[in-house]
Write a structure and sequence with these properties.
Elements (H helix, E strand, L loop, with lengths): L1 H11 L5 H8 L4 H13 L1 E3 H7 L4 H13 L3 E5 L7 E5 L1 H24 L2 H27 L10
Antiparallel strand pairs: 1-3, 2-3
Helix pairs in contact: 4-5
């Protein structure tokens, strides 16, 4: 099984290369990509929703948004109804990034759709769902364990 996984990674490494995706994601972190996705889906959210979505404390989410503002991916605005509430939206650059990402994903989805039969697509999603169920179960077990991080001090 390890050989198959290794071969698979070697086969897709060029597809996931920085040359292909670097321009689309502007060297975004995982949390930044998740925020882009959330805003693409919901258009406008508040900081608490972002923190909950990316599973981080509010102060960490605030730092993520600050970095994204510097990159001109998002914009913060005070709510008209309640000045205490700050909403986050995609800035023009963020919208362009998400459009480019969705165009790329759509291209590959179309290629897969054209290459697979309906039965193969159905089987593919059944396998993906089974994989997700396994990963979710593992995640639940990991959450129950107290992890101790060891930091080497030189």
């Amino acid at each position: 099984m390890e050989k198959e996984i290794s071969k698979f990674i070697d086969e897709i490494k060029d597809i996931l290369s920085p040359e292909l995706w670097g321009n689309l994601l502007l060297d975004c972190s995982k949390n930044e990509v998740l925020v882009l996705w959330l805003l693409y889906q919901q258009a406008e959210v508040n900081m608490s929703q972002i923190a909950e979505y990316i599973h981080t404390p509010l102060n960490t989410a605030t730092g993520v948004i600050a970095r994204m503002e510097k990159k001109k991916l998002v914009v913060r605005e005070r709510s008209v109804e309640d000045k205490r509430i700050v909403t986050i939206q995609l800035d023009e650059q963020g919208k362009l990034q998400m459009q480019a990402i969705m165009k790329e994903f759509s291209y590959y989805a179309l290629q897969v759709g054209n290459a697979f039969t309906k039965e193969e697509i159905k089987l593919f999603f059944q396998l993906i769902n089974k994989l997700l169920d396994i990963l979710k179960q593992e995640r639940k077990q990991d959450i129950g364990k107290n992890r101790v991080r060891k930091i080497t001090i030189e």
